[in-house]
Amino acid sequence: MAPLVQTWDPKPNPYAAVANGVVDLGGGYNARAQTVSKQNPDRMAAAMPEEGSISQINTINLVNGSKQPEAALQFMSYALSGETQSRFTEELSYVPTNKNASISEDARKRTATTPERMARMIDVDWIEVAKFRDKITEQWRRNVISRS
Question: What are the transmembrane regions (predicted)?
């Protein structure tokens, strides 16, 4: 499987830039920001804008033609269980996908799971965004990143 794995590395890294004092504000993902702020509590804090935020959705999928579909399904069942989702939220600050996940008040404060924050989440039509994403990304790279 290793030769087929790809990864995404966000560059520039807004979390390091904020934690190191290079910039005062950076946009990013809550779970990653929570991890960095936990490691650098005197230099960084994660926050959700009062105007709201969007959800970034992670998926877990069975690959067509998998040589071990039963094992894959067993892992998926484990990963999506209430107990595992609880731990995922408590340890990594990701919002659980299982409504039966038991979440502490502390973890709720670090995620968008409070009723107040959920009410401020903004729906995005990602199919529509995909139509113009490359154009915006190219403009951002050319006009913003190149000047930093």
Answer: none
